[in-house]
Write a structure and sequence with these properties.
The protein is an all-alpha fold. The protein has a single domain, classed as Ribonucleotide Reductase, subunit A (Orthogonal Bundle). It contains eleven helices and no strands.
Length: 289
């Protein structure tokens, strides 16, 4: 059960985020010159990677449903739990709106290139969104761990693809998406620090479980996921979700920086698990999450 201090911490994270980013952003229609797209500058591999990213983003109804269930305002819950969940929902509503804009913008861009079949794209979107999504964890702290990694990985992908493409409109689109994802990642990292700072809530075994079991959204759900993932890494050189595990280390803060002899065994196990996930794949190998 969340304590009053945790409630105040969550409220602080949400308020700080909304104060900074309530009105920041961009217009999915007005800010990009779709009529100026130079589609001939896009490779088939880049288009395929972009299409996969759009399908993952477009599953936002499933993601939103999972988070609304996680923070459901059940009147039978204690007051402090309800207040904590209500505070989180203020962020969730803003966050899911951002992610829906990402999906719609990528869809608009793909259609504007003239290099995808509109009917085929619509069919693929219907099939993908028709598949159920199950949140990887029922624990809010573990979901914070998961989402730090997922948001950072997505931000790195957009940044790397932006740097790799030559098409100028897509560069602008990917830059906007990347900045959004960086903001989202920052929020969840702050939220994780808040959970970990509350006495009795820093369960390192649960963090380790979330780290070790991490898979990107729609792993095992999207058709040809492995092939699509490899294609995304090839289209966006430098992209890999490993960088996100460094953020988990940083979010542990004073726990990870404590003297070795004062660490709990579960913390030591967690740090070792993080080290394993941070290591880059051997030359010639591709890791797929």
């Amino acid at each position: 059960m969340p304590k009053a201090a945790l409630l105040q911490g969550v409220r602080h994270c949400v308020e700080r985020y909304l104060r900074r980013f309530e009105t920041s952003g961009w217009n999915r229609y007005a800010d990009f010159a779709y009529g100026d797209i130079r589609a001939e500058l896009l490779t088939d591999q880049q288009l395929s990677a972009l299409r996969t990213a759009m399908l993952v983003e477009d599953h936002i109804p499933g993601y939103a449903k999972a988070y609304h269930r996680l923070f459901e305002l059940d009147p039978s819950l204690p007051d402090v739990e309800l207040d904590t969940r209500r505070a989180m929902l203020h962020f969730v509503f803003k966050w899911t709106s951002d992610e829906d804009r990402h999906a719609h913008t990528l869809e608009n861009y793909l259609r504007a290139t003239g290099r995808v079949d509109d009917a085929d794209l619509s069919k693929e979107m219907r099939i993908a969104t028709g598949k159920p999504y199950d949140a990887p964890h029922a624990d809010p702290m573990q979901m914070a761990v998961y989402t730090v990694i997922q948001e950072k990985a997505t931000q790195v992908f957009y940044s790397c693809l932006r740097d790799a493409v030559e098409e100028p409109v897509l560069k602008q689109v990917l830059d906007a998406l990347s900045k959004d994802e960086a903001r989202h990642c920052g929020f969840f990292a702050d939220l994780l620090r808040t959970y970990m700072a509350e006495p009795g809530t820093h369960d390192f075994a649960k963090v380790k479980e979330a780290v070790q079991s991490f898979k990107m959204p729609l792993y095992g759900t999207l058709d040809d996921y492995k092939r699509r993932s490899i294609n995304m890494m090839r289209a966006a050189p430098g992209y890999h979700y490993r960088d996100a595990f460094v953020l988990i280390r940083q979010a542990l803060g004073r726990f990870a920086d404590a003297r070795t002899d004062s660490r709990s065994q579960s913390l030591q196990d967690l740090l070792e698990a993080l080290d394993v996930r941070i290591v880059r794949p051997a030359a010639g190998q591709r890791a797929v999450a």
